[in-house]
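Would you kindly consider the sequence and fold I have copied below?
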Amino acid sequence: MRVILDTNVFMSGLFWGGSPGEILDAWGSKFLTIVFSKNILTEYLRVSDELSKKYRQIDIAPFINLLTIHGELHEPKKLSISISRDPDDDKFIALAISANCPCIISGDKDLLVLNEFHGIEILKPGDFVRKYLETH
């Protein structure tokens, strides 16, 4: 299954575990493929740099390297209108549309309020785990 991880899910999985950690474990076991773009990767790097200053014991570089090797890089098309209440979150929707990716996993209320957009599911990490991972 191909999924897009909002930055908060990717970082939560790396730094704290929980449902986001289970999603990353499913990626590690090749049940999932993470779809990303250059601008999402840039955001992952920026946020991980900020978090690494607080949590020095966690080295995110190996995970970023794995993502660039085992993830699926796409260049999203620009949206003609803003979809999310927070225009900065539109990059996830644009990527899902361009890459024909069926699911965005997010903890961001501005994305979650959409619930679904043109057949793209937008799920909380726990909901994704219950719906797709607990049965496998």
